[in-house]
Design goal:
Helix content is 49%, strand content 14%. By secondary structure, it is α+β, with helices and mostly antiparallel strands. Helix 18 links the parallel strand 7 and strand 8.
Length: 628
């Protein structure tokens, strides 16, 4: 309950403290709960934990990949209230039960097929927990591991996330089979089962592309949940509950840190040794699960407990209720996906034919504001108010377990009714780029820019169909300022992308170099593009450049704490005759001197010199400017 209550805390520090205390308490309670009570009680509690994971996935579908407990005040309050009532009821009723069952609970472990290998079981169970969070913490994650450019993107998270949910459910259903009754399964058969499902599917998810990778991910989903009951049963059969749970949590946390080090290797000590090593992490996880799976008895969860004859009907009835609840949760999740998909399809394609369009770039910081709270609602409002037709958002891959296990690209796409492009793939160890377009994306290619020393720099080149007029876009996120060689090579690579694009192209990039610098000049000269405002020398990261279109306006909007970086926007016109058009070269700051239909939204105020330090979104840095 304390973990849930942390959401109500006034600031991040207090929230972290309450959350840490709540997690510690919940682990103690979970350990006591799983290692006490009679066999039937423990069987139901462990299955309740697994069903809770499926229920959470279903709830996240209805909240468009977000965890409702951490993203909705109403949902958090409701669940917190239910949890508080349940905790109070257990506290007041626990005393009587303990008096009645003092002798029984003391012998709970001995009622199972006990084994002393707490170290192996703990590592395997912790690894299984992390695997479930890392890849199956949300049904859209498999699609983001398998994604590629348009038009062959692979399966979209909605509706194909439903296949992941079905795969997880079928894995749990397979676990009900009695291993000893299926043609007397031998160790050899088990090795084949493990080798050709666990290892092969995990390798396929890492190294195959689009639909092939997604199929491998779905097979891995079946395998993962199929071994959950058996590994959980072996885990709670350990004679040393404290050692087993501590080992499991240590393995879980260690693997989580390893996952962080794989991508954030430039910001952590010793990171160079773990750079882009997700394959080692996944291989280690599968090895731990496999060893524990193969060395243990091939029994389902109920067989792990020594079931008395008079309890067998209760176990059978419990299994029926478990299956009923499982498919109820799956049905609720699939219904949510269907309704969301239908609503999203109705929103798409609403862009009206026009010659003018606006483009925008914004470093997003994974959908968290400067206080550590989710900023998706505020971001959607801001993006909608800008009226931008094409939006690129830097640092948007929140599908990693240490960021949130969610999909801001899908969330914003469905909320705004925009076409989306997510890339590169989550498995490529970048911080991600999101592209949102009011108009259809015809084609796109995901790029990993040269990054021999620093973090992996992503880029996307794409073509958007503005109702019959095709315009290319190149969006990129360069590496850190400290990595001079990386930035040099990345500027050359992106200038080549710009050079080989069509005659009409817009560049939106996060360059980490000053105007007039080597990298800036490389893009301008070798990429054959123009800066939207070459007189704006007070920039550092975000830049907008173009070729083959007519510039109409340029604006910078303060972040107001929603991120730590401002929004930059530009308006362009697609010329009727590409060979004979003339670009605007005169700058004005009085909006009355240009047609009203190219004005930026007055909701952001009027022209302002210098920074806007107020906690509101407002034009600043000598913008907006118009060109005529």
């Amino acid at each position: 309950v304390g973990s849930l209550a942390s959401y109500q805390a006034p600031n991040a520090s207090i929230r972290l403290f309450i959350l840490a205390a709540g997690v510690s308490s919940s682990l103690l309670v979970q350990t006591v709960t799983w290692w006490s009570g009679n066999s039937l009680q423990r069987f139901i509690r462990i299955w309740g934990f697994m069903l809770g994971k499926i229920m959470l996935l279903a709830l996240r579908i209805w909240y468009t990949s977000l965890n409702p407990v951490w993203n909705s005040q109403a949902a958090n309050t409701v669940i917190l209230t239910i949890g508080f009532i349940a905790a109070v009821e257990r506290i007041y009723s626990g005393g009587d039960r303990r008096k009645q069952e003092a002798n029984k609970t003391g012998n709970a472990v001995r009622e199972t097929v006990s084994h002393p290998h707490w170290l192996l079981s703990g590592i395997a169970f912790g690894s299984l927990m992390f695997l479930t969070l890392w890849i199956f913490g949300e049904v859209s994650l498999i699609s983001r591991w398998a994604v590629s450019g348009h038009p062959h993107t692979g399966p979209d998270p909605n509706p194909y996330g439903g296949t992941v949910l079905l795969g997880l459910a079928h894995g749990l259903m397979l676990s009900f089979w009695s291993w000893s009754s299926v043609i007397y399964l031998t160790v050899t058969y088990s090795i084949l089962f493990y080798s050709f499902t666990g290892l092969a599917s995990s390798a396929g998810l890492l190294y195959l592309h689009t639909w092939s990778a997604a199929v491998a991910g779905n097979i891995l989903a079946v395998f993962t949940m199929c071994v959950w009951p058996q590994l959980a049963g072996r885990f709670v059969s350990c004679l040393h509950p404290g050692k087993a749970m501590s080992t499991a949590m240590f393995a879980y946390v260690l693997e989580l840190f390893f996952c962080v080090w794989c991508t954030a290797y430039k910001f952590v000590p010793g990171g160079i040794y773990f750079r882009e090593s997700s394959h080692l992490l996944l291989g280690f996880i599968m090895l731990c699960i496999g060893v524990d799976f193969l060395t243990g008895p091939k029994k389902d969860l109920s067989s792990v407990f020594e079931v008395k004859s008079n309890q067998k009907p209760l176990f059978r009835k419990s299994k029926n209720y478990i299956k009923l609840l499982l498919w109820l949760f799956v049905g609720v999740g699939l219904l949510g996906l269907g309704l969301r998909y239908k609503t999203y399809q109705k929103k798409l394609g609403q862009g009206v034919p026009k010659r003018d369009f606006s483009a925008m770039i914004w470093p997003f910081r994974f959908a968290y504001d400067n206080e550590g709270w989710s900023n998706l609602e505020g971001s959607a409002n801001l993006l909608n108010q800008t009226g931008a037709d094409f939006i690129t958002i830097i640092e948007s891959d929140a599908s990693k377990p240490f960021i949130g296990n969610n999909d801001p690209t899908m969330w914003l796409g469905e909320r705004l009714g925009f076409y989306t492009d997510f890339g590169p793939s989550t498995r490529d160890h970048t911080w991600g780029i999101m592209a949102l377009s009011r108009y259809p994306i015809v084609k796109s290619t995901h790029h990993l820019l040269p990054s021999p020393e620093g973090e992996i720099a992503p880029a996307i080149s794409m073509t958007v169909n503005f109702t019959g007029k095709l315009v290319d876009f190149v969006v990129a996120h360069f590496g850190n300022e400290e990595e001079d060689l990386d930035r040099k090579l990345q500027a050359i690579a992106v200038s080549n992308l710009l050079k080989t694009s069509s005659k009409q192209v817009v560049f939106l990039g996060y360059i980490t170099s000053a105007p007039g610098s080597r990298d800036y000049t490389e893009l301008i000269e070798n990429g054959n593009v123009q800066d939207i405002d070459s007189t704006d020398h007070d920039r550092w990261c975000s830049y907008i450049m173009y070729r083959g279109v007519i510039r109409l306006g340029y604006a910078r909007i303060s972040h107001a704490g929603l991120s730590d970086s401002e929004v930059q926007m530009a308006k362009f016109r697609i010329p009727d005759h590409l060979d004979s058009y003339v670009d605007n070269d005169r700058t004005v700051t009085d909006p009355s001197q240009v047609p009203e239909d190219i004005h930026f939204n007055p909701r952001f105020g009027s022209y302002k010199d210098g920074h806007n330090y107020e906690h509101i979104h407002h034009f600043h840095m000598s913008t907006p400017k118009y060109f005529k």
